[in-house]
Amino acid sequence: MRRIVLSWILCIVLSIQVVNGWLTANNARSPLLSILVVSTCCVSRLHGYLTYLALRMPLKGTRPPPGSPWPMPKEWNPTSDLVTFDPDNFRFSSNLMNCDIVIQAIERYTPILFGYKGVKKAAGLSPLTELKMTISSNKCDQYPRMAMDESYELSVGDTAELTANQVWGMLRGLETFSQLIFYQDGQIFMNKTRIIDGPRFSYRGLHTDTARHYIPLPILKKNLDAMSYNKFNVFHWHIVDDQSFPFVSKTFPELSKKGAYTNKHVYKPEDVADIIEYARVRGIRVIPEFDTPGHTHSWGKAFPELLTPCYANGVPGTPIWGKYAAYENFDVTKEFVYEFLGKFFAEVKEVFHDEYIHMGMDEAYYRCWQSNPDITAFMQERRIEGNYSKLEQYYAERTLGIISDLGRKYVIWQDPVENGAKVRDDTVVMVWKGGNTAHEDHWNSYMEKIAPRGYNTILASCWYLNYIKYPPDWEALYTCDPQDFNGSQAEKDRVLGGETCMWSEYVDGTNILPRYWPRASSVAERLWSPKIVKNTTDAMYRIDQQRCRMVRRGIPAEPILDGYCGDYDWGFGDVDTPEVDKPPTCTGGFRLEGRITLLVLPLLIVFVL
Amino acid sequence: MTMSSFVGIILLLIAVEIPGSFQHDRGHSKFRGPQVSQTAGTPWPMPLSYHTQATFTYVDAGEFKFTDVDESSSCSILEEAYNRYFPLIFGRRPETLFFKSSFKAPTDAMTELMVKLEKPCKDTDYPMLESDESYTLDVNGNQAMLSASEIWGVLRGLETFSQIVYQSNDGGFVVNNTQIVDKPRFNHRGMLLDTSRHFISVPILMTNLDALAQNKFNVFHWHIVDDQSFPFESSTFPNLSEQGAYDPETHVYTQTDIKNIIEYARMRGIRVVPEFDSPGHTSSWGYGQPDLLTKCYTGSQPNGQFGPVNPVPNSTYVFLKSFFTEIAQLFPDHYMHLGGDEVSFACWQSNPEITSFMKKMGYTSYSQIEEYYMQNLLNIVGGLGKGYQIWQEVIDNGAKVRADTVVEVWKAGWEAEMEKVTKLGYKTLLSTCWYLNYISYGSDWMAYYGCEPFNFNGTDAQKQLIQGGETCMWGEYVDGTNVISRLWPRASAVGERLWSAKEINSAFLAQSRLTEHRCRMVRRGFQAEPITGPGFCREEFGGV
């Protein structure tokens, strides 16, 4: 009895949310309409999730109906009419059925839609039997690009249709479609809906540092899954740094042989290819970063001649503790460095397919260069004595030239530009300072300094997920808008997007996924959805729904509110069996029947041991 | 610890490269390679007396066994421990080990650990606050002997033995000549887990019990219910979870689940102390037990809101007696935690029944009525023959409690509170400095490590009353997805503070050992997160 009453109460609550969700997306609806929706919905007996404690202890904000998408589409028009699906009688069709991206997407999304134990079509509703996917370009693109078209339109009515200009839009639309589905008492539902969608920014990046801690391949892949569930489209792979060099180069195998933590903590060419392919079919670009001329200590293990000998008391290779180590930064005056980089990046070009390479160039502190008499002499010769930003500029010009000659484009961190170096006009500058207390200035002051100089920019400052504090901190991530700085419209238009970063001093395979998710989802909506979608009290419940959706799909996304997800909560059913050779597996979806599991489990564990 | 081992650790630290410059713009230190080197085969927490030499012996994984000196003193607790520790020492799945072991142990390799248990153990033994966990461990050449008075000491010693055996680069398992005499500094080394704000599944609780045992914790303080949900399935009052759990079918602990948890913990020498917090933090009780909670009023009318347990009617105490009788039978530990924290008076103030009762009793403050409630509850539980653990507010409000009461100090300003509570003569626990739900960037374990429970003004007799402490994980922002990685190895820092001698207190000296310990936990399958900066484990979670 209680359940029925509850479901009716929920029905009313949820119906209000339908309209509210609508309001958020479309910004205008009449109250009359909401009454209409409430009444029709309750007639159709829509059940809701009892997910929140907040039903008993009300929190502010409006709760979305089940099957609310994240990030919020540009236009989302759900109706109160429901449809259902029959898992045994449903097919995806497309005009590009021979395209590998389409084929693999169907293979991925079929279990996401219907893979949960025992779900079946809802009684009393006629099932939709097909999602018709039309890609109007009629072209099976191979690699996602900066300029790809990710827009799509989706309509779910008596038929379901997804149309997109390119396969990339089809992927985004399919993700949205998969989020509209919800399950009640094992039955499958979807509200009839019309969606017109496309991203606000073309660059929506997520950065992983695999040098301070090695991140195992299965974890990187899980993370790519989660990225696709949040419509991120760039994996910025900060693959090497001072601490280790896990990238295996065929041209210079000594780099990882000597620079990796161990001979197993490496990414071999086939591993990198595996990651790129995994990302590609999800519409995610892989941009590698080989950070130079600073952050290169691990390169020096195999090629010490790349690094600048720092001087003390006239002796090269002598550290002054607190100032510099024995060797730091590439010695940018040496021709050897450029010959080396020419060969190295020729290989990088072959291994990575994206049109962009991230060239780093951050934190190249001058003190070691300043101590080195050969560098001083070199600068005197070029009449730039004492002006180290000109030395940085010289290095940038040479290395970006190498990349340009290879036919690739480049992203760099803000530092050289901030220091006054002039870099090539087509350089994309990533702004990373000013997001935390370590910098005096707020990020927008850096943006205001860099944007007028005509570069395309990407903002990362406010989205450093490695910094943690007592939750909730997702709101601060959510409300940072990359165009909120003083500048002309043209300058704002040159903001290509943003990126969330995870520097890995304190993360590895054990904790990186719950540290990313769902905090990175905040950033995902900021970068995808229209600027006006910024109400945190409304977003709170929708992002929680997204976190439960991720948990259901096998991503250990941590909680941001009290409450629970469902019988697929993490640690239900099969234990996340602690085995070092196994990534955290999806524990969601299934609950082993009855208590017997829990009863025999300790015995089982003892037995296995 | 001997000079020789001190010197060893210091040498290891020197091996760490000293930073060239400190640039913290990106939060990066400019250490190169691993920030902290790892020890090999050192124990965590540090034993009371630990002498180790550079000479080592191979341990033959193929032949190795545990041998009872006197088989008649053994019991199932010990036999199961042997089964557990074999794979913990040699790897559950050898193929996942960094060094593939095609290694053939030499003929003089160690093949057994002799285990001498003085007081025979029984299959039915439960660990207690007063249990003796001391042991000695002597490894000399290929001979190894572990002796303890009680089974609980053997369990601790087995853990230590499993930690000092390590894999060398040739793939062989080795152990250094070592003499250990060990016992805990504190009897009560606990961890609180809150399963109300978020439900934590039984398998994850069990995983955590394994981790607790490997850090020599001995109390699982199970904060099982709270405002948010009531996952405890009572046989006497099934409505409590039927109405109060997040989901009465999936998000509950059945009686069988609880028995399994207690048994799993017992096998590892861990007590399970359940907490049923009242009179505050009880919203979730109200759904299944109407009229238990105080009705809040706006003006002269109830407003539909509920406050703490209603301390006035007799029915409250009839219910409590019946409920805690069940708890006393289900949980074998002598102690149960009765909560008593954070009672808000606002609702009581609004309620005319409470007001008239206070008049009748001549009470002038609401803490008096709180005391009235707690006193009744304490009498009920005391009458069941149980001891209790309570939060500090109960004492602050002046309730009279049993002499064997354990008072848990959790608020800021713990130094003054510890002084006060011990002056009153109560056994005391500290938890203030070990709230692991609070997170911050970087190596926050050092602050946990540095918190010294004796740092308050008091006589030696007062300090003798300190039973230990508890590290707490309140559940607002953790569930199965992140609870293990958030707990470990940060809780390990607390583990050493509570087990090891007071003088073992340098985080700088501890960090290499802690780094090894965390990698050991990762090798054993726990999601123990990195907390000492950049570096690596030979075996990584997710594989290498």
Helical proportion of chain A, percent range: 25-40%
N-to-C span of chain B: 35 Å
The strand line-up of the biggest sheet of chain B is 10-9-8-17-16-15-14-13
3D shape of chain A: elongated
Q: If helices are DSSP runs of H or I spanning 4 or more residues, what is the number of helices of chain B?
A: 18
Q: What sort of overall outline of chain B do the alpha carbons produce when their principal axes are compared?
A: elongated
**Mean pLDDT of chain A, nearest integer?**
86
Strand residue content of chain A: 15-25%
What's the assembly state of these chains? heterodimer
Which class of secondary structure composition applies to the elements of chain A?
A: alpha/beta
Compute the average pLDDT of chain B: 93
Strand content range of chain B: 15-25%
For the largest beta-sheet of chain B, the strand count, sense and barrel status come to: 8 strands, parallel
Which structural traits does this protein have?
heterodimer, A: 609 residues, alpha/beta, nine-stranded mixed beta sheet, eight-stranded parallel barrel, 20 helices, elongated, disordered N terminus, disordered C terminus, B: 544 residues, eight-stranded parallel beta sheet, 34% helix, disulfide bond (chain B)
Structure commentary:
Chain A contains 20 helices and 21 strands. The radius of gyration of chain A is 26 Å and the shape is elongated. In chain A, a hairpin with a 2-residue loop joins strand 8 and strand 9 (187-197). In chain A, 36% of the residues lie in helices and 17% in strands. In chain A, the strands form four sheets. In chain A, strands 1, 2, 3, 4, 5, 6, 7, 8 and 9 form a nine-stranded mixed β-sheet that branches. In chain A, strands 10-11-12-17-18-19-20-21 form an eight-stranded parallel beta barrel, surrounded by four helices. The model of chain A is unreliable at 1-58 and 575-609 (pLDDT under 50). Chain A is α/β, with parallel strands linked by helices and 609 residues long. Chain B has 544 residues and is an alpha/beta fold. Chain B has 18 helices and 17 strands. Chain B has helices at residues 3-15, 76-90, 151-164, 202-214, 239-244, 255-267, 285-288, 314-330, 346-350, 352-361, 366-383, 393-396, 414-423, 445-450, 460-464, 483-487, 490-499, 507-523, and strands spanning 49-59, 65-68, 112-117, 135-140, 143-148, 165-167, 173-182, 188-194, 219-223, 271-275, 293-298, 301-309, 335-337, 387-391, 406-409, 427-430, 466-473. Chain B has an eight-stranded parallel β-sheet with strand order 10-9-8-17-16-15-14-13. In chain B, helix 2 packs parallel to helix 3 (151-164) and helix 8 (314-330) packs across helix 11 (366-383). Chain B is elongated, with a radius of gyration of 25 Å. The chains are: A alpha/beta (609), B alpha/beta (544). At the A-B interface, helix 5 and helix 20 of A face helix 2, helix 4 and helix 6 of B.
